[in-house]
Design a protein that fits this description.
binds cobalamin; Rossmann fold; 5 strands; 55% helix; 10 helices
Length: 231
C-alpha cells in the first residue's frame, strides 16, 4: 500500500468489489483488514464498505449480480467487522443499543454504524433486524444503556411505533436513521433523526452522550497505534 490513503481506499474498493463478484472471501477479508489498519474504521466504512454495499445492492436490483452476491457480501462484512470487536471496558465506556424496528430487515448499515461507535469507545449491543420495541426497551434497562439507535428503510417501520418511540426517548437519548426515519413527517420532538453521513452521525451521537473524564484515545488510525487497535 502507498502512503496516500485516498489511493489505497479507491483500490481497496475495487478489489473488494472484484472479490465479491468472485465470491472470494479470503481476498475480501485481507483487503478490508489492510484498509482498516491503514485508514481506520470511519474511512474504511464510508469509502470502501458502504460504496460496495450500495453497488452490490443496485447491481442486485438490476440483475447484474445475484442474490448470492448480496448474501455473500453481507456475511463477509459482518465477519470482518466482528473480528474488530475487542471488548471495551472501563468507567468511561458508554453503552448503545442498536436495533431495527419490527418488520424492518435492512440492518447492515446500522451494523456498520455500530463499528464506528465501537471505534469511539462505545460498548455496542446489537439486537439486529425486526426487533420488538419491548425487547429494545428491556435491553436498555438491563444494560443501563446510554443511548439507542434505530434504523430502517421504510417510513412505516417508525410511523407505526411513534408512541413507543416517544416513551423510550423520555428515558434516554434515542436516535433514528435511514430512509424511513428521514421520511417521517413529524418525528417526536424527543427523538433525533441522524444524517445519512455516517461519520457526522457518529460524531453527533458521541457528542450527545459525553463520556466521563479520561477518555481513552478514539480507536481510529494513528500511525503508531494501528497495530494495537486491530490486534
Ligand atoms: C440489500 C437489500 C435488502 C436486504 C437487506 C440486507 C440487510 N441485512 O441489510 C434484504 C434481502 C433483507 C431486503 C429485503 C427487503 N427489501 Co430491500 N433492499 C436491499 C437493497 C438492494 C440495498 C439496501 C442497502 O443495503 N443499500 C446500501 C446502503 C449503504 O444504502 P442505503 O440503504 O440507501 O442507506 C443510506 C442512507 O439511508 C443511510 N443509512 C441507512 N441506514 C443507516 C443507519 C444509520 C445509523 C445511519 C447513520 C445512516 C443510515 O446510509 C446510506 C448512505 O448513503 C435496496 C435497493 C437499493 N439498491 O438500495 C432494497 C430496498 C431497500 N428494499 C426494499 C424492499 C421493498 C424490500 C422487501 C420488502 C422486499 C423486496 N421487494 O425486496 C424486503 C423486506 C424488507 C423489510 N421488511 O425490511 C425497497 C425499500 C422501499 C421502501 N422505501 O419501502 C428497496 C429500496 C428496493 C426497491 N427499490 O424497492 N432488502
Amino acid at each position: 500500500m502507498g502512503n496516500d490513503p485516498a489511493i489505497d481506499l479507491d483500490l481497496a474498493r475495487e478489489r473488494v468489489m472484484a472479490a465479491t463478484r468472485d465470491l472470494d472471501g479470503s481476498t475480501l477479508r485481507d483487503v478490508l483488514l489492510d484498509a482498516l489498519l491503514v485508514s481506520g474504521v470511519d474511512a474504511t466504512v464510508t469509502r470502501v464498505i458502504m460504496p460496495v454495499l450500495k453497488d452490490v445492492g443496485d447491481a442486485w436490483e438490476s440483475g447484474r449480480l445475484g442474490v448470492v452476491h448480496e448474501h455473500f457480501v453481507s456475511s463477509a462484512f459482518r465477519g470482518v467487522l466482528g473480528e474488530l470487536r475487542l471488548p471495551v471496558q472501563g468507567p468511561q465506556v458508554r453503552t448503545v443499543v442498536l436495533a431495527c424496528p419490527p418488520r424492518e430487515l435492512h440492518d447492515l448499515p446500522l451494523e456498520l454504524f455500530g463499528a464506528m461507535l465501537h471505534a469511539r469507545w462505545w460498548r455496542v449491543v446489537s439486537l439486529g433486524a425486526n426487533s420488538p420495541m419491548t425487547a429494545v426497551a428491556e435491553a436498555t434497562r438491563f444494560l443501563r444503556a446510554d443511548a439507542v439507535v434505530l434504523a430502517g428503510v421504510r417510513r412505516t417501520a417508525f410511523e407505526a411505533r411513534l408512541p413507543s418511540l416517544t416513551r423510550l426517548a423520555r428515558t434516554l437519548p434515542l436516535f433514528v436513521a435511514g430512509e424511513g426515519a428521514k421520511a417521517l413527517a413529524e418525528p417526536p420532538p424527543e427523538v433525533t433523526v441522524l444524517p445519512d453521513d455516517l461519520v457526522a452521525a457518529a460524531e453527533l451521537v458521541d457528542a450527545r452522550v459525553p463520556a466521563v473524564d479520561d477518555l481513552p484515545p478514539v480507536l481510529e488510525r494513528r500511525d503508531d497505534d494501528a497495530e494495537s487497535v486491530l490486534g
